[in-house]
Structures are given as C-alpha cells and as structure tokens.
Fold:
Amino acid sequence: MVIEPVADDPNVEQLQRRGIRLVSIGRQPGADSALPYIDLQGRETGRLLLEHLRDQGARRIALLIGSQARHSYVDVEQAYREFVEASGMPCLVIKADETGGEEAGMQACRDLLGEHPGIDAICAPVDAFAVGAVRALKEMGRRIPDDVRVVTRYDGLRAQNCQPPLTAVNLHLDQIASLAIELLFEQINGRTGRSVVRGPRPDLVVRASSSRDAD
Structure:
C-alpha cells in the first residue's frame, strides 16, 4: 500500500516494474495512473472546510497548499477555485514545499498577509502548514479566530495540540485502512473488478481556531 503518492511517484514506478501489486490510499494524480485506490474524497473535504469558514463569517479565504502534485492538494485547490468563483470571493492561493514543514507554513502566511492584509481565514490542508500559520499570525498580532480563522485537513496530534486547537476533518482512517487492505487482497488474488473504492464521508471537527463557540 502507498499513501497519497504524487504524480509520477518513483517509488510506485519501481514497485510496478517489479510486478508488485499495489493499491493507493488516495488517488494518484496524473492521467496515466491506473493505480487502484481508496477515494479520500478530497474535493468534498475541501468544500466542507470552506463552507464552514464561510458560515463563520469569513469572506476573504486564502488557500495554503503544498506545491507537490498530490491528490489532497490538487482536489482541494479545485474545490477552492470553484467555491470562491461561486461565492464571488477573491481567489488567494499560495503554495509551499511540504518538506519545509511549519517554517514553510509560517513564511507562506507572512507572504499572504503582507500582500493581502484583509485575509480573514486560511485553509491549510497540511497540518504542519496550519500550525506554522498560527505561529505567524500570533507573531503579527492577529487574533485567532477573531481576526483570522484557520482550518486544516488531518485531525491528528498537530491539530489537536495546537494553541488554539485547529478545526480539522475526521477522515475515519481506521475504516480507510480496512478498505485498503481488502482492496489489496482483491488485487493479489486477481480479482481486479474494483479499481476505486469510495471511503467514508469525512466529518468536520470544529475547534477554537475557527469558531468562538467551539469547546
């Protein structure tokens, strides 16, 4: 199993050359990819986060994503562009190298606010970027969530331990793992009828980074 591979992922290519059966958790971007996968519903996740920010009063929402061609960036960016166009909001997208972690998130946030000081929400699917953005906002004297709301995708330890805790999404990864194992055994045993298995519906976990009413 591979988790959220990038387009033209060299690890995937090497394993396929060796004839090893593969399944992916998350779609591999690229028109030529035929890798069976569990659909993590990236666009739905993006819309869930963006609609929440809008419902909290945000009207200038920025998107901070990784520069790599990974499904969770590609799909959320597509959802974001559709969302802001339909809502009549400005399109404010910035990309950073995911290997830069929190520091990359901090710098991207500084760049965003420097160019667009009226931003009132940041959707950062990478949890490290989101934590970095929170750190940068605090340095700039911006109150969270009063001045700028921040949300992320993965409801892991970073999101939970951030101060304030980050609104995130429960992807139901235990169920995802079970579905991936089932699909992999199908591939190993030559039952190749299913190439895409839809994962469970993501659920929003609202916390203090985006809502004053959160516990």
Summary: DSSP finds seven helices and ten strands in the chain. The mean pLDDT is 95.
